Amino acid sequence: MAFGRFERGKPQVEPVTLKILVAGGFGVGKTTCVGAVSEIRPLRTEELLTEAGRPVDDTTGVEQKHTTTVAMDFGRITLREDLVLYLFGTPGQDRFWFLWDELATGALGAVVLVDTRRLEDCFAAVDYFERRSIPFAIGVNCFDGAARHSTEDVRRALDLDTEVPVVLCDARERESVKEVLVAVVRHAMTYAADRERSVTT
Amino acid sequence: MSGDGQRSSHWFDDEAGPVVRPYAMTRGRTSHAVQHRLDLIALVVAEPHADDPEADHSLSPEHLTIVELCHDAPQSVAELAAELDLPVGVVRVLVGDLVDEELVHVNRPVPPAELVDESILRDVINGLRAL
Q1: Distance CA A165, CA A178 (A)
Q2: What ipTM was estimated for this complex?
Q3: Is B106 helix (H, G, I), strand (E, B) or coil?
Q4: What is the pTM of this model?
Q5: Sign of the C-alpha dihedral computed for residues A167, A78, B118 and A106 taken in this order
């Protein structure tokens, strides 16, 4: 076995790891979004699940999609040698909710991807993060041919707090996804600062 | 019942999926004492002295693969699960064994509540912009 690459006595860098979740309805582009910025091809971790529900997936409006995210697709971004960000696409279907708690524990924040043709698909994710006080940003995935709505329309339709960032994006574009992630982290920063203030005053 | 041995030996069908195999690697265990520490982004780091894990005959090939992968660079639990193509639950048990054997240690991720030191988040933003 090849253990040769490990140099004895040389301490390995043990980076700080962070995670951001990418949530949203079935077929909204979560895995595409992860793949757009990940330095590795999105990997898949799975828990043992049966796929008995597969035939009833409603793909109206997302006819292009033939496979479904059974478990968690994830990507990695090495920001620095000692700082690594993981992106986890959450399972797209409601019957996998039990996996969310494990994913959400310790998450820095979340992106909720929204398809304005099927806005209601993201309600559950928005509720989830609001209830658990996990900072999140809305990424409105502008699919080709999808009717565009202003960020204000989306904010109103989702009844979001004013501080929740709403960003128009293209989940296939690296620069676009970077912008959404920056919005999440900035939001997490002010969120943490606000919480700090409310504790000390 | 007794007269139909053929049928009773097929009490499950194909739809049940692989009923036994993955957790056979853990000898049936589905949890481990150190499991509560193992977040998906917990990093598994090989101990420097763990350069001959094959000497330990109690380890399975999957254990050895984990040690080998972690020797190259620390690996997250999620990456190990993907690399080994095993359920996360199985990897947690196997990593727990390796912790007991002192062949690896696990670095817990920093909980966001402790990231109030904003410099890390600022580094994340700068790092993302620089991609």
Answers
A1: 14
A2: 0.80
A3: strand
A4: 0.81
A5: positive
Domain map of chain A by residue range?
16-45+65-200
Where does A16-45+65-200 sit in CATH, by number?
3.40.50.300
Distance of CA A37 to the CA centre of its chain: 12
Please tell me the distance from the alpha carbon of residue A138 to that of residue A149, in angstroms, as a whole number. 13
Domain ranges, ordered by start, for chain B: 5-126
Q: Is B39–A46 a contact, with Cβ atoms under 8 angstroms apart?
A: no
Q: Which chain B positions have a beta carbon within 8 Å of A18's beta carbon?
A: 41, 109-110, 112, 120, 124
pLDDT digits (tens, 9 = 90+) for B10-43: 555 655 555 556 777 787 787 777 656 689 999 9
Distance from CA of B2 to the nearest CA of A (A): 31
Angle at which helix A30-37 crosses helix A174-200, to 10 degrees, equals: 100
* AA identity, residue B81: A
